[in-house]
Input
Amino acid sequence: MFFSTSTGVLALAATQLFIGVSAQLKTCTNNSTLSCHSSSKAPTCCYNYPGGALLQTQFWDTNPSTGPSDSWTIHGLWPDNCDGTYQSSCDPSRAYTNITAILKEQGRNQLLSYMDQYWVNIDGDNESFWAHEWGKHGTCINTIDPSCYTNYTPQEEVGDFFQKVVNLFKSLDTYTALSNAGITPDSSKTYSLGDIEAALTKVHGGSQAYVGCEDGSLNQVWYFFNVRGNAINGQYQATAPLSKSTCPSSGIKYAPKSGN
Output
């Protein structure tokens, strides 16, 4: 894993966990065009289009609480059309609902265990949540289309997608970034949007993140990237958010999770 806070470039090598399987994504060169930066607007296996901006999104759930009390949780990885609009549910034929079974079949048990702790549904139905995120957003990432693999194995892109989202999430520790700036969950304290954004900029390669609130309480963070190459082992470059914060400029609550 490589992450440079000076350039905002994140390059994560995809880990193939299959035994005896040689399938892999087609190779992209280092001079591949950065997504959202081409006038040709033609999708290839090395150019994310139309969803050229990829968002690693996170939750802070408190009512009810989900995940560890000292960590945010995963929402997903969303392709955005570089302008705040997006496609959804792009391939119903690959809208798989048996994500657990797919990951187990691929030998990704460690990944599955991590997801059960950090990629959790507020209603307790993790499987449906994962299926929703894959069907709505994952199937719209064109650079992980089955045609972009050599020796393709069915559902291989599903495992690659979930592993990539987890890798990105691990590199973007929102709780620690805020805590290092003195911004911690508290039942009475409030914080300013500027301070929150400044703290997250440090973990996001110098680029601002989107901060979301509900009823004045902090509840979501979205980290925007452009990608050079495919979405699995390409280089991720942090970029400014395409959406405006839903938080007030001051008086933002950061409620503790239950038991915190």
The radius of gyration is 18 Å. The chain has one domain: 2-254.
